[in-house]
Amino acid sequence: MRASGSETKDDAVTHILSSWKGKVIVATGGVAVASGLVIGGMVATSGNAAPPKTATPVSADNASAAAMPPFRLPFPCGQKWRGDTTASSAHTKYEIDFNQGRDLSNVDEGRTVVAAAAGTVIRSTRHVNQSGYGNHVVVQHSGGYQSWYAHLKYRSVKVGQKVKSGTKIGAVGRTTRPSNSGMTAHLHYEVRKNGQYPPVAAYFSGKRFPYPQPRPGVTLTACKGGSTPPPASPVAKICGKGFKQIDSRALGKAGRVYLGYNKANKNNCVITVKGKGKKVKMSAFLQPKGGKAKTDTGNFTQYAGPVKVAAPGKCVKWGGYIGSTKWYSGWSHCG
């Protein structure tokens, strides 16, 4: 929040794929999300392995970029914006206010705000009296993460809409409750885990926002100053025709596990991909609810999988590992 008044809280690779048979695959980012929400982290195994174990929860202070979708600054590529965290007594340490022009003025009003990562819009509304957020949008991402954008002048998206990283969702504004009409234009931004308040630490282009930041804040460049569009996913190439990526999760710096879906035959597909190099023990895992788990495990040069399972109207568990780095979902992407 800016100037007078206070806010209350309303709710608590680079993909290069030259030849998937023997050239190079490098996976370091890119996420698209289906309408189902990702639920909790579970370690799942199959066959005669030990029963599933609950993954260690990630605290707000210890959340890492590897565990999150690839968030970017919520503004058009190449633009520079200042972010501060101590402009309002209502802030917690992980809420950020952004300005591009002069602070405590309205020169930024109407400037474009974009989705910080791919996901599904789960809220697009204006609160008149319930909170100080005014026009605000909430986008659900993979892993249970949500990005919040408040005080917008207007909203460009509706509930249920799928957005890509960089999709316009509205414009910087100063909408809030009538009692705080003196607030100046800025974007209020948060990242929440599983919809819970307070927010968790935000990351932009893989780097943690440098908390705390008093006014005038730290200057960041959207997309690290570049405007290169996100590269193509390896899902269609490896899983086959008709498959599209609906989710992915980084396995540290080792690579990434991908979940694909084919609307025509209702098949899910999981692949675990790393950069070209020596053979490493890898695995891809997929299980439909009420069905048997399938895995592809072995020593591979580039990827494990594809593992395919038909699961119309069912939730799935999916994941994999590269070496000692592993990640497995709970029941997610239902239907």
TrEMBL record:
Entry GO MF terms: metalloendopeptidase activity
Stretches assigned to the M23ase beta-sheet core domain: 99-197
UniProt cross-references to Pfam families, sorted A to Z: Peptidase_M23
Domain of life of the source: Bacteria
InterPro entries, per database record: Cell_wall_metabolism_enzyme (IPR050570), Dup_hybrid_motif (IPR011055), M23ase_b-sheet_dom (IPR016047)
CDD domains: M23_peptidase
Stated name of the protein: M23 family metallopeptidase
Protein's organism: Actinomadura rudentiformis
